[in-house]
Amino acid sequence: MKYPFEAPLEELQADLDTYVEVVFSCLESEFMVIPKGRGFIEYPVFARAYEALKQATNGFISLHPDVILETVKEVPLALIVLRTIMGFTPPEWAYITTQRTGIEISQGFSRALDRRIRMSPLTPIKFSPLIQQRVISMLETACQLLWEGAPQVEGGKIHRLDKADTGGGLAGIRNLAGMGVPYAMLLYERFLGRPFAGHRDSVSELIGNVLENAIEEILAGAGISYRKTKRAEKIPGFDQAPDFIIPDEFNPQVVIEAKITGDDGTARDKVTRVQHLEELSVERQANRKPSFEVIACIAGRGFGVRKEDMKKLLMATWGKVFTLKTLDRLLECTRLQGFRSK
Predict the structure, then answer these.
(1) Are 127 and 135 in contact (CB under 8 A)?
(2) CA–CA separation, 137 vs 102, rounded Å?
(3) Distance between CA 102 and CA 68 in Å, rounded?
(4) How far apart are CA 142 and CA 68, in angstroms?
(5) Cis status, amide bond into 290, omega within 30 of 0
(6) Which residues sit opposite 295 in a β-bridge?
(7) Phi/psi-derived region of residue 73, left when phi > 0, alpha when psi is between -120 and 50, beta in every other case
(8) What is the pLDDT of residues 216-244, one digit of tens each?
(9) Contact 246, 295 (CB under 8 A)
(10) Residue closest to 46 by CA, chosen among 89, 97, 83, 94
């Protein structure tokens, strides 16, 4: 199987559909594998905190904020277990606590507390008087909500607490904690909530950096001079700065656009950016300036949706489209080879 970056332009143009399928076949969808990142909670750790909360509430028979607070001080992750039972994000818990108690709990505070706990989930924690007051307010709100369960709402709507465990109040939590969750209902709630959604959001930056980090490792390993641009950075000669410029913006010889996306609309926008870079290269040549080679490094299922967009990407780069699977060929199949110093 020949990759598009190995084919002469004439061959690429003559059999474009085949090369589109070649790229599609080696696209690796990042949504199946997620980096753990710092603060990832393994299940045995989560289960230990769950048991601590269960014991503190006598098997969820009674919820007393003061008692739960002492448990949280000893096993901080119990606070996140309680939040998980409600099904709230940290900012949502902060918002409803402020609404119900009148004590101002900012989203920044709730996120910072959540992250602090995830970094040391089982290490006993000490609260300052101010933080303890806020945590108690959050616990009071949680206990009230779980005691009440889901109220009736008008047709066409559903309440956030209308779940298998919390819909009927504390009795529902107690029953499920004692007998186990029916698998069908568990799957249904996962369907509604997108499994791993919260964790995926917390490591979204890591996911986005996977491709750029891999490119940097290749360039640095080969001793190639490069300029990595920042988001929305203004670079002379480029109305939209590419992700990498080799060797630098004052003498661009190769530019690289890198993108991971699971959305075909975002993928289309990136294709348009790459096409524009090719137009700038042609314009430079027309003005008797050195042109630059345009390379696209892509990943994610978003690029595997629209064949016409992939055709445009292949033509704009003269076949220089690389995926995580083919990134090891980046140097040998592009003008980058001429900038190696190692």
Answers:
(1) yes
(2) 9
(3) 21
(4) 11
(5) no
(6) 256
(7) alpha
(8) 999 999 999 999 998 878 898 898 899 99
(9) no
(10) 83
Q: What is the pLDDT averaged over residues 5-11?
A: 94
CA distance 63 to 46: 20
**pLDDT tens, residue by residue, 29-88:** 556 677 788 888 999 999 999 999 999 999 999 999 999 999 999 999 999 999 999 989
Does residue 333 have a pLDDT over 90? yes
Residue range 89-109: average pLDDT? Answer: 94
| Cβ atoms within 10 Å, residue 296 | 27
For residue 111, give the 3-state DSSP assignment: helix
The proportion of the chain whose per-residue pLDDT surpasses 90, expressed as a percent, equals 66
On the CB side of 228, CA atoms within 13 Å amount to: 12
pTM of the model: 0.70
CA 305, CA 309: separation in Å to the nearest integer?
9
Q: What pLDDT, on the 0 to 100 scale, is given for residue 29?
A: 58
Q: Are 241 and 229 in contact (CB under 8 A)?
A: yes
H helix or E strand, kind and range, residue 258: strand 254-260
How far apart CA 12 and CA 264 sit, in angstroms, is: 23
Q: Cα dist. 261→111, 120, 204, 305 in Å?
A: 26, 32, 11, 11
What is the rounded distance in angstroms from the CA atom of residue 305 to the CA atom of residue 267?
9
Place of tokens 């507390």: 113
> What CA–CA distance (Å, rounded) separates 48 from 67?
17
Average pLDDT over residues 138-156: 92
Whether the pLDDT of residue 180 is over 90: the answer is no
Are the CB atoms for 327 and 297 separated by under 8 Å?
yes
Q: 22 near 319, Cβ under 8 Å?
A: no
